[in-house]
Amino acid sequence: MNEVIKAMLERRSIRKFKPELPKKEDLEQIIETGLYAASAQGKQATMILAVTNKELRDKISRDNAAIWGKGDVDPFYGAPVILIVLGKKDWPNRVYDGSLVMGNLMLATHALGLGGIWIHRARQEFETEEYQKLLKDLGVEGEWEGIGHCAVGYIDGDIPAPVERKPNRVFWAE
Predict the structure, then answer these.
(1) What is the SS3 assignment for 156?
(2) Half-sphere exposure of residue 172: CA atoms within 13 angstroms, side-chain side
(3) Domain 17-153: which topology?
(4) pTM of the full structure
């Protein structure tokens, strides 16, 4: 079977991570795949904020849990790295383009033997002045909307079995 298709079929959302940071070289490869995701009109109007700083990662986790209404949990399941995908706020295809970036990040994570999971609520985080200031402090210009978080790390445990695919989801018009 083709290796890319195999990765697509075998990738799973991981919900338990070891605390060790993955190798920077692996993270750089994962990020590069996100930058190569297809984008409407080739605009490349997305960006990735790679969070490896534990203090900032933990703050984002607390804020995300508060938005979710679950203040006592870690929405990132202990993953030590959060790759946050953002789209230019004035680009109408930002959510679609950002979703393609997220897909690439998760596939690359799996292909490198790491675990990943898409976590929501990035939009709500980056609607706040605090997170807009974080971007400005990092030298990011313009207005950005949060699309999603790709939590990344070493898998702690077994890879989950695939969920059975629902029937009647493909119709051919031949």
Answers:
(1) coil
(2) 1
(3) NADH Oxidase (3.40.109)
(4) 0.96
